[in-house]
Predict the 3D structure of the following.
Amino acid sequence: MTHGPLSLGALHAAPGTKTRGTVPADLGTLTVDIPLTLVNGAHPGPRVLITAGVHGGEFTGIDAATRLAALLEPAELHGQLIVCPVANPPAVYQGRLGVSPLDGVNINRVFPGDPDGGPTERLAAWLFAHLLDGADAFVDLHAGGIDEVLRNFVSYRLTGDAQLDAKSAELALSLGVEDVIVGLTTDGGNSHAAAARAGVPSVLVETGQLGERDADTARHLVDRLYRLLRGLGMLTPEGGASAPVREWVWVAGVTSEVTGLWYPEFTAGDDVTQGQVIGRVIDPADGGEHKVHAPAGGRVFYGMHGLTVAPDTELAAIAAIR
């Protein structure tokens, strides 16, 4: 249980108070200001970190995190909440894409980062050292980017630690999202995978698509975050039955083998069979057609909606019932 002052950089929140501002992160070649809201509850409880804006062009989480930070009152909170609505300012404000304009690196492939690496690796390391350290739970908000269709889902990774995995599963279930995708390992540089390796119960939340900025979608996500905080005992519980969920596992990722114009024959949420043609890449020079087949059967949870693709562009991700 946490019940003392909450400080990050020059920002300080005594118990029962809330403060907002920025903290500078040194990335070696430059410094970026990370916006933060510290909500220090009037009552003891866990410390939770919520981030958004890890990628540019994913606006639902940024909007929802900002709304949540404004709505929460310290008097009603048990514990401490750190809200970081824009975790990767260069990508959000300058690039608006998955990679940073500083170095072309996708930060969600390099966590927990490297304090002696390039700018994006240093930013990942800063976020872990300053925000995740001491957290009892971590929620990373993502969305379908500007070129991406997506079916809402929440995901967590299995570590082999039964107690830790149960806590992550509880976080995922508490959000009330219909589809939960279970990662069978903690491999890779995703934020929630690296956090799980560090022993912090963690979930990835994907809500919204095509870079939309829709107020109703953001408010609905805020409602889900309130559910999660209630599940952690940080807010007064409310009655009501838990929403049914389905568990999935990733079975295939589909990437382009050629350069050309992409014409998908699916949308997010569609079920596909192994070998099914799910789209075509057309060569604009000669009209040649390259058919793209589903390598496995299951449900498409996200996919490329943009017209132009190059080799290794991610076209679709498929999961199957666990």
User: Anything to note?
Assistant: The helical segments are 59-71, 89-95, 119-132, 162-174, 191-197, 215-231. The CA atoms of residues 102 and 264 lie 31 Å apart. The first strand starts at residue 6 and ends at 8. The mean pLDDT is 96.
